[in-house]
Every structure is written in structure tokens, then in C-alpha cells.
Specification:
The complex is a heterodimer of chains A (about 775) and B (about 300). Helices cover about 5% and strands about 60% of the residues of chain A. Chain A contains five helices and 50 strands. In chain A, the strands form eleven sheets. Chain A has a 22-stranded antiparallel beta barrel. In chain A, strands 8-15-16-11-12 form a five-stranded mixed β-sheet. A four-stranded antiparallel β-sheet of chain A has the order 3-2-5-6, with no helix packed on it. Chain A is globular, with a radius of gyration of 27 Å. Chain B is mainly beta. Chain B folds into two domains: about 40-135 and about 240-280, no CATH class; about 135-235, no CATH class. Chain B contains two helices and 21 strands. Chain B is globular. Classes of the chains: A mainly beta (about 775), B mainly beta (about 300). At the A-B interface, strand 22, strand 24, strand 25, strand 26 and strand 43 of A face helix 1, strand 1, strand 3, strand 4 and helix 2 of B.
Chain lengths: ~775, ~300
């Protein structure tokens, strides 16, 4: 089997070469090429995603790629150009094109006292005409303006306020996208796959806003170059260091952060380093409660980013992340955290063909330690992922953008290992362990896509195809089940190290179409199929870092989905407002749930506890947003339903998925009161989360045993919350030293939103329910500075 | 190896305690008005047979709404039979074998119930079977101090295990008072997949950590004194009875839904759509006396 892998790697360059030759054949050579780079006029940092428009050419436009490069082919003559980028002053210029021309556009950042903000990091015109839909791009400026919890700016809390997205639970970093479960979201940090993005049980995400440039959420229409999860892709792009040396920081009530950035060697090498550390537990010794007094709760994370401009055609990037949480209460504690590394080489093979090469590695692990009078216990779990990917972009003309490439990821799973050590009566030390078998997965993907503009760019067609192959690799103990989920072999089969013992493969077509009806109105539709080969076994509706991932295998089927979407998108009132309505329908195969009373804890034969079936989600999303002006923000309303039908669960009847929360409203408002004062307000509403409640009871062994009729047939109370913040700029404008105060209030009207439901019995013997809620009103203040 | 230290139960207990502590630190609680609808009442049949001679009982009842003050009540059956012999009606819904009935190891028993539960004038028919397991005799019972010579103590049972799956239960008496009078104070454990399968075991019962004061009914305590006699009834359970007990314990223990998965009905073995269980067990007993030690008062 190892030979198979060697052969596979040998075939990949051939396949790449074939695709390149094929794509090159599509090139159309007419007119002159105008190419160049768009960069920050102050720092020299290139600007990916900048828009180059030609108002005189019927609104023709193009974008800069990840290196800030663009290419557009135009007829000979004079052309007016409009070059724009979020947060920068738009530049109007004219070029005389009488031969192929290469140029550099530098954009000035907007003034320190910016009047209003642009909500989404795309221009309205660009969003309207693209074939892609169900996509939200947000830059750090927006993330930093949303009110915070405990003063900590959080990227994922902003994601949870987008249409079609709901928080998995109060305070959680997990989220549901269009009825999908949290494990159906792929989260990439500079193309490194992250498996748990929570700090402090999910109250914070691992993303430090100082180290993030932009994030893009694909809610279903995922580009062919990405896959691996059914519901969404959240792509987080780390910030590059700017050339000028600068320091940014913030001091909050429970956390502080600091970042430095700068450049050397004429800014050919830029760097950024950012760190955060919480210190909430510093105040806990003041508590009266002995348990709380001796509690440790903190986390830290560190980010580093290097960018080396080797020459105009070669850029190298290095991204590092390391973060860890530490809890200790009484004599028990939990440590968990992520480490991630990504190395990226961007290479311009020609002015029409670009290559991006990534190698990535991530590690997530947790380590629970506890002591009783009998023994010391340690319980560890780990998942590692090493990947490489190579993406090619080929732009033969202004009508086509071809992308193709290959990705490969090897995943190591150690779902759980518990070690107990103690002393027996004779005084001898004894060590015993309960270990779930290691599992390994190897996934290889080739893909191809094209964005094709038709009929004078009024129609854009995007089509693509992914081919994925997933292999299970030893060493492991393989357990297989029959159709009734009974073990075929109780002892399992020992698979030696390195043996490829099972594989699955699948095709994932992607299709998108946009029609620009008028310059201010477009219609879009898309279809995508996605496959998922790794699965999260979540033990609790409330979310926990102590969850495990397992790969597909002979008895664990890959999850699959088909999703179709359609929408109307419009720019209103001279592009001040954008409005959209999207409808979607998603069909899920092999969606996973547990049997009733599953054995989940450190159980190696987990295949017997899982059940697979079908699911469906559908809904409609309304969005109205204002991009500019003193008053900006967005309002969204989503109506959606999500159901499961899994043989062996709920008497084989269809039941509500945990993400079935029909009504969801998000209101996010930014208001610039004055150049020194900015206010933000958001309000979130969601129908209560489905729960299962007993309807009857009977006596057994002097206890009242509950009787259930239907899974998830009841709901927790509706969730709603309002947050507000005020940002006060201090100091004088124009100075290098800048500082500000951010005052945030989370849960402004102290709504008690349920986090978990507990069963209680009152003294009269009557059952009642009790909710656990995490937050009442939470004010915070943070002092931010930069120089 | 003297005994197995590490069990899933230990891990679950340790992590649950820890997370509950965390909740205590982080969260607040409040009663809520959420209620479920009242379901249509369902028939419940429960009964167990033991190899220990005695009056062995089958109970027939109807479910009550989960919320509210109404409690489940016993109901009359037309006929209840065990292996073809009619059981004696002792009280409404209570049917018994009579005194000194002892189930035989390896024997399969058939329970049959005729009852007009739906009130249509015709009896419905419900059945269940159980095969009595073979006894694993409790050969020794000792108190092991977890601190050297003082409280807390743990009971260590000595028994010869047999290869393959065995389902054990344990009930504790203190001076002839059944301490395990509730399912959460009743001990169950399955031994099948560990290094000592089929060996002679000295197994510490983790369910009861013996101190001078144990948890008792209605928030009270059961106080222990030097000289008190602890009696362990070690039971070998039929598989369906073990599974029923295991799931029932999970349902009663689910204050915080961690490591427990989705809620659901306890799986019984009564045919015809009734809830409940007809199970059996083989039992043996041993006693120990609490020693005089600093941690225990004298009477």
C-alpha cells in the first residue's frame, strides 16, 4: 500500500502539468495587457482583493490576487481607472495603453478620523456581479467595533451575527450554519485546519483580532478548492506586518494584549507578533468561596507572521500560532490548546499563471488531571493534522479565471487515553490505563474550477469539481458492526502500522450562476455537493473542550450533502444600502447521531453507539445593510428549519435537529456620534434550542423513571440579548501615539438565557426544571493604544 | 494484580465533579416554568426473580404525568402467571410468588400478564422472559482503609469471575437496613473487557465510600458507628436486567448532560408495548463489622 502512496505523489505533477497545458490552450491573445500591483501608500503592503474598475468600459472590473497583483486586457487607447480598497481612498487615474504595461497603484489609507466604516470588505458592485453567493467577508475593523464580552474582541461572535448563522449555545464559539452542526464547519487559519477554536469553554475564540486581516465565511457555496465539511468554510487570513515599526496593545479587566509589527531590509521582510493573556484568576483569591478562591482560570495565545518578498515573483509567508487554556479547581484541572504552523510560498510563474504552495500542521489536545484519595488520574486526547496544498490560478483573459490544485492531509487521532496511578495495600504502585485505539486518516484531493464571464460580463458562470479520496491507515484496532450495529468481531482486528486498510472516494461538483439584470440588481443561484470524512463526537449540548474527533471508516460513513441556493441581490439608494434575499435547501446523507443512552466515555467500540441517517434543512435569509455614513450596520432575519431522520433514533420518526431554531434576527448598528465617539449596538434573537423532555414517569426501585415520547420536541426559552459599546478616542489627531477607551456592556438588559437544563425535585416530590445561565449583565472596559 | 483501580465510572465521577465545580464558579441557576405535555398513560410491568428464597413480586402500574403532583398508581390485572402458574394477588397491582420462592440458576422463566388496559372490554396480552444467571459466590468481603487505618473505607469483594461478559450488581445493608433502597445507591458493573476477565478478583466497590455519615433519603444522613455490620449482597444479573438498571441510573443521574448523550426511554423487555422489565439475578452475601477507629464514633 505504501507503493500506492508513492505512485499517487508521482501522478500529481503529471496531472498538474496536464491541467496547466489544458488551461494555457484556452488563452485568448487580443488587445494589450495591463498588469500591476496595488499597495498601501504608507506601508508598501500589497492589497489582495483590491478592485480595479473601468467606468468607461461598461463597468468592467477585476481584482488583485493574494499577492496584490492584477491583470486585465484592454483595447489600445486611453482608459480611466478606479482603484479602490476598503479603508483606503479610491484613486482615479488614466492610463494610455499602446503596449503591454506593468504599473503600481498605491492607495492612501483613510484619515485617522474615518467618517463611517464599510461594513463588508467587498465593494457593493463586486458582490453584485460575482457568481458566488452565500458568502460574507468581514475585516478586522468591523470585528473590533462589535461590542465585546469581558472586553475581548472576538471574530466568532461576529460570525454568529451573520444571517443563517447561530451560536451553538450561550457563550460558545461553536456555531450552526444553515441547520448544520458545529463540526460541519471547516475553520482554516492560513489554510491550516483547526479542530477546536475555543478558549475558556467557548467564551472566547482563539483568534486574536490583532493578528487577523480578514475572514470569509462560505455558507454553502464553497469554492472547489475547499471542502471537507458539509456546512461552511470559515477562512481566516492572518494579518501581515506593516513596514513601519508599530506597537498596538490593549489593557482590559481580565485580559491584555500586545502586538508589534515592522519591516527590515527595505521592508522586504515584514513581521508581526501578537500575544494575549488573561488574568481573571488574579482576583479569585479575594472570593469568600474556598473553591473559587483556589481556582485557576486563564489562557494565553501567541501569533507570529513573517512575510518575505524574495522578489516580485516570489513571496514567502510563515504563520505560527500557539495557545493554551488552564483550569484548575480543587485538585482537578484541565489544560487544552492549539498549535498551528503554516508556510506559504506564492509564486508568479508568468503574468497569467500563479501558484500558491502551503504546508500546514495543527495540533489540538487536552489533558485532564484529577486526584482522589485512591488514585491520580490523567486523561489525554489529541488530534494532529499535517497538510500540503498547491493552488494554481490561471487568468488567460478577462473572461476566465481557472483554478486547479491538489491538497493532501494526514490526520492522527488519539481519541482518548486515561491513566490511573495509585498505591495498593502492599504499598506497591499500580498504573492502569483505558485507551481508545489510535486512528489515522489520509485524504487526498484534486480540484478544478473556472469563473467564466459571459455576455459582456452580465453573466458569470462558476463551475468546478473536486475529487476526494480518503484512506484509513493503521495502526489501529478495527471494530466493525453489522446492520443492527452489533459488533461483527468483539475483539476487533489489529491493523499494523502503515497499512492502508480501507478507503472511500467521492466527487463534489460545484456550480454557480449570476445574472446582472441591471447595474444595481442581480440574480444568483448555486449548487454544491460536499463530503465530510471526520466527525466530532460531542458529549454535551452545552459545549465542552473535552470532545473527540474520529475519522470515517468501514462502519462510520462519510457525511454528504447537496445544497441548492438562489437569491436576489440589490444595491439601493446610490449603493448606500445593500439588500438580499436568499433561499436554500440542503439534503444530508449519513448524518450522524447517537443511539439512546450511548456509551461515550473512552469507549473504543464507538461504532456501536452511532446511528446514521438523513437530514434536511431549508430556509430563507433576508439581509439589509448600510455600508457607509455615520450610521451603518446590518439587519438580518432568517427563517429556517432543520430535521433528521435516523433509523434507530426516535422510533425511526423524523425529529428536530439541535440546530432547528426557526427564527433568527440580528441587528448590528454602528454610529459615529462625533470624530471622537463611536457607538455600537447589537441585538440577537433566536428561537429556543430544541430539547427532549419526559412526559410521563413510573416507579422502579423507589425512583420515578422518566418516559419520553419524542426527541427534541420541546424548546428552551428563546434566546435574545443586547450588547452595546462606546469607543472614545483620546489624544490629539495626527499624532503617532493613539489611544482610546472601549466601554462595552454585554447583555445590556440582563437577560437570563438558558445554557443547560437540569431536573430537580422539590420537597413535595414534584419535578421541576432549573436552568443554568452563564451571564447576566457584563460590563467591561479596555484601554487600547498604538504607536 | 490485586484489583482494578481505574474504571470509566471513576473518570466520569472525577470529571463530572470537576465540571459541576466549574459550573458552581461560572454559572447561576434558576427554576423555570417550562413543562412538557402530559402523555397518554402507558402500562408498566416490573418484576425480578432472585435465587434468594422469598416472596418475589411482579408489580403492574400506569404512568403518571412527569410534572405535577400526580404519582403513578398500581392497577389490577386480570391474570398474572409465572411459567404457567398464577401469581398471588397481594394488593392492587401487586402479584407475588408466595413465600420461599427461589429462582433456579440457568432456568428460563416466562411471565404472562392479561389486562384490559385500554378499556375496550378485551384483555391485552403481555409477556417477558428471563434466564437466571449462574451465581458468582462472594467468597470474601473486607474493609480497606483508604487512609491507612481509619475512615474512609471501601468494601472489597473477593470472587471468582468467569470468562466473558458478566453483569454484577450489589446491594448494601447496614445493620439489616437496606441502604441501597434507591437505584442511585445500588451498585452495578459489567466486567467483560479487561485484563482480569475470568480471574479471581478482589474488587473495590466504588459506589459506597464508607465514612461516619452516608447520604440518606430526603437530604438526611445515615450515621455509622464502630461495630455496625455491613452486609453486601453480590448479585449476578441477567443481561436485560443489567441494561435496564444501567439506563435507569443514567436517567436518574442526568442532572448535567455531560458524557451521557441524548435522553431516552429505559429499554425494557416486556412485549406488547408495555414499559418495564422482567429480570433475574443470583445472589450471595457476606458481612463485615466496622472497626473501632478515630473516624467512627461508638454507640
Amino acid at each position: 500500500m505504501r507503493r500506492y502512496i508513492i505512485n499517487l505523489f508521482a501522478v500529481i505533477p503529471l496531472l498538474m502539468g496536464l491541467l496547466i497545458v489544458t488551461a494555457a490552450g484556452l488563452k485568448a491573445q487580443t488587445n494589450y495587457a495591463l498588469s500591476g500591483v496595488v499597495a498601501d501608500a504608507v506601508t508598501g503592503e500589497v492589497l489582495p482583493g483590491a478592485v480595479i474598475r473601468l467606468p468607461g468600459e461598461g463597468g468592467l472590473w477585476t481584482l488583485t490576487d493574494t499577492r496584490g497583483h492584477f491583470l486585465i486586457r484592454l483595447p489600445q487607447g486611453n482608459h480611466g481607472l478606479e482603484v479602490s480598497y476598503i479603508g483606503y481612498q479610491t484613486q482615479l487615474t488614466e492610463v494610455v495603453l499602446d503596449h503591454d504595461k506593468d504599473t503600481v497603484f498605491t492607495l492612501m489609507p483613510m484619515s485617522y478620523y474615518i467618517q463611517g466604516v464599510t461594513v463588508f470588505a467587498d465593494s457593493p458592485a463586486k458582490r453584485l456581479s460575482r457568481a458566488e453567493m452565500s458568502i460574507e467577508r468581514i475585516d478586522t475593523e468591523i470585528i473590533q467595533r462589535v461590542p465585546t464580552l469581558f472586553g475581548e474582541v472576538d471574530l466568532l461572535k461576529v460570525v454568529q451575527m451573520l444571517p443563517g448563522v447561530q451560536a451553538a449555545s450561550e457563550g460558545s464559539s461553536g456555531f450552526h450554519v444553515r441547520g448544520g452542526s458545529p463540526d460541519q464547519n471547516m475553520i482554516l487559519f492560513d489554510n491550516a485546519t483547526l479542530y477546536n477554536v475555543s478558549h475558556m469553554l467557548g467564551f472566547f475564540s482563539i483568534f486574536n483580532s490583532d493578528a487577523v486581516k480578514t475572514m470569509t465565511l462560505y455558507k454553502g457555496d464553497i469554492p472547489a478548492r475547499f471542502g471537507g465539511r458539509l456546512s461552511s468554510l470559515l477562512e481566516v487570513i492572518p494579518a501581515d506586518g506593516a513596514g513601519r515599526f508599530s506597537v498596538d496593545g490593549g489593557l482590559g479587566l481580565i485580559a491584555s494584549r500586545l502586538s508589534v509589527q515592522g519591516g527590515i531590509a527595505d521592508d522586504r521582510l515584514t513581521y508581526l507578533a501578537a500575544g494575549r493573556r488573561t488574568y481573571a484568576d488574579l482576583f479569585l483569591p479575594l472570593a469568600k468561596n474556598e473553591i473559587i478562591k483556589n481556582t485557576t482560570i486563564n489562557f494565553y495565545d501567541l501569533n507570529a507572521r513573517l512575510k518575505w518578498k524574495v522578489n516580485d515573483n516570489n513571496y514567502l509567508y510563515l504563520s505560527l500560532y500557539n495557545g493554551r487554556d488552564r483550569f484548575r479547581i480543587s485538585d482537578m484541572g484541565l489544560k487544552f490548546g492549539n498549535a498551528a504552523t503554516a508556510i506559504n510560498w506564492n509564486h508568479a510563474i508568468s503574468d497569467r499563471l500563479f501558484m500558491r504552495f502551503f504546508t500546514t500542521y495543527t495540533n489540538y489536545d487536552y489533558d485532564f488531571q484529577g486526584s482522589t484519595s485512591e488514585m491520580d488520574l490523567e486523561w489525554i486526547s489529541r488530534i494532529q493534522d499535517a497538510g500540503l496544498r498547491v493552488d494554481f490560478s490561471f487568468i488567460p483573459d478577462q473572461k476566465n479565471v481557472f483554478e486547479f490544485g491538489y491538497t493532501s492531509n494526514f490526520q492522527w487521532f488519539q481519541p482518548g487515553k486515561a491513566i490511573g496511578t495509585g498505591t495498593i495495600g502492599t504499598g506497591a504502585k499500580v498504573e492502569q490505563d483505558i485507551t481508545m485505539s489510535r486512528r489515522q486518516g489520509f485524504v487526498n484531493v484534486v480540484y478544478f474550477s473556472n469563473e467564466h464571464k459571459l455576455f459582456g460580463h452580465r453573466i458569470e458562470l462558476r463551475y468546478g469539481l473536486r475529487f476526494t479520496r480518503f484512506d484509513n491507515v493503521g495502526p489501529t484496532t478495527l471494530y466493525q458492526v453489522d446492520e443492527q450495529y452489533n459488533l461483527i468481531d468483539e475483539e476487533g482486528t489489529e491493523i499494523p502500522s502503515g497499512q492502508f486498510f480501507h478507503h472511500r472516494y467521492g466527487w463534489e461538483p460545484r456550480l454557480g450562476l449570476s445574472f446582472l439584470v441591471t447595474p444595481e440588481l442581480s440574480l444568483k443561484t448555486s449548487y454544491s455537493r460536499t463530503l465530510q470524512y471526520v466527525h466530532l463526537l460531542s458529549f454535551s449540548s452545552a459545549g465542552s473542550p473535552m470532545e473527540i474527533w474520529i475519522p470515517s471508516g468501514p462502519s462510520i460513513l462519510p457525511q454528504a450533502s447537496h445544497q441548492i441556493s438562489a437569491g436576489i441581490f440589490a444595491n439601493l439608494f446610490n449603493k448606500d444600502y445593500e439588500a438580499s434575499v436568499e433561499v436554500f435547501y440542503k439534503h444530508l446523507d449519513n448524518v450522524l447521531d447517537f443511539k439512546e443512552h450511548p456509551n461515550l466515555l473512552l469507549y473504543d467500540k464507538i461504532e456501536t453507539e452511532l446511528r446514521f441517517g438523513k437530514g434536511k434543512s431549508y430556509g430563507v435569509e433576508f439581509l439589509l445593510k448600510r455600508n457607509t455614513g455615520a450610521l451603518s450596520g446590518w439587519i438580518s432575519y432568517t427563517w429556517s428549519r432543520s430535521f433528521r431522520n435516523i433509523p434507530g433514533v426516535n422510533k425511526n420518526q423524523t425529529y428536530r435537529a439541535p440546530s432547528d431554531r426557526p427564527h433568527n434576527i440580528n441587528i448590528v448598528v454602528f454610529y459615529d456620534i462625533s470624530p471622537r465617539l463611536q457607538a455600537s449596538l447589537n441585538w440577537v434573537y433566536a428561537t429556543g434550542m430544541p430539547i427532549t423532555l419526559p412526559e410521563g414517569r413510573y416507579w422502579f426501585y423507589n425512583e420515578l423513571i422518566p418516559v419520553y415520547t419524542e426527541r427534541n420536541s420541546y424548546r428552551m426559552a428563546d434566546y435574545h440579548r443586547m450588547d452595546a459599546s462606546l469607543n472614545i478616542r483620546l489624544g490629539k489627531p495626527g499624532r503617532r501615539w493613539k489611544h482610546s477607551l472601549n466601554v462595552s456592556v454585554y447583555n445590556l438588559y440582563a437577560r437570563k438565557n438558558p445554557w443547560a437544563i437540569n431536573y430537580r425535585l422539590n420537597p413535595a416530590g414534584e419535578q421541576y426544571l432549573e436552568m443554568t445561565y452563564l451571564f447576566s449583565i457584563v460590563p467591561s472596559i479596555t484601554w487600547n493604544f498604538s504607536f | 494484580m490485586e484489583f482494578q483501580f481505574l474504571t470509566i465510572k471513576d473518570i466520569r465521577s472525577a470529571t463530572l465533579v470537576w465540571l459541576l465545580l466549574l459550573l458552581l464558579a461560572a454559572g447561576c441557576t434558576e427554576p423555570i416554568a417550562l413543562r412538557s405535555d402530559d402523555m397518554e398513560p402507558r402500562l408498566v410491568i416490573t418484576g425480578t426473580l432472585s435465587t434468594d428464597p422469598g416472596n418475589q413480586v411482579v408489580e403492574i402500574s400506569s404512568t403518571a404525568p412527569y410534572f405535577g403532583s400526580e404519582l403513578p398508581v398500581n392497577i389490577e390485572a386480570t391474570e398474572v402467571r409465572l411459567n404457567g402458574d398464577s401469581l398471588r394477588r397481594d394488593a392492587p397491582g401487586i402479584y407475588s410468588t408466595g413465600e420461599n420462592f427461589a429462582a433456579l440458576q440457568g432456568e428460563t422463566y416466562l411471565l404472562e400478564v392479561w389486562i384490559d388496559y385500554d378499556g375496550d372490554g378485551k384483555d391485552e396480552y403481555y409477556t417477558a422472559t428471563t434466564t437466571v444467571p449462574y451465581i458468582h459466590a462472594l467468597e470474601s468481603l473486607v474493609l480497606k482503609s483508604l487512609s491507612g487505618a481509619d475512615t474512609p473505607f471501601v468494601l472489597v469483594a473477593g470472587l471468582q469471575d468467569t470468562p466473558g461478559e458478566d453483569y454484577y450488581g450489589g446491594a448494601l445493608w447496614i445493620n439489616d437496613v437496606l441502604y441501597s433502597n434507591r437505584i442511585l445507591r445500588y451498585y452495578i458493573h459489567m466486567l467483560n473487557d479487561y485484563t482480569q476477565d475470568g480471574e479471581y478478583l478482589r474488587y473495590p466497590i466504588p459506589e459506597w465510600i464508607i465514612t461516619k455519615s452516608l447520604v440518606w433519603d430526603n437530604g438526611g444522613t445515615f450515621d455509622l458507628y464502630a461495630g455496625d455490620v455491613l452486609t453486601l449482597e453480590l448479585q449476578t444479573l441477567s443481561k436485560e436486567y443489567y441494561l435496564f438498571l444501567a439506563e435507569a441510573k443514567i436517567e436518574k443521574n442526568q442532572q448535567f448532560p455531560l458524557f451521557s448523550g441524548p435522553r431516552g426511554n429505559v429499554t425494557g423487555n416486556i412485549t406488547g408495548g408495555a414499559l418495564g422489565i422482567f429480570g433475574s439475578y443470583a445472589s450471595s452475601r457476606k458481612s463485615v463489622t466496622l472497626p473501632v477507629c478515630p473516624g467512627l464514633p461508638s454507640r
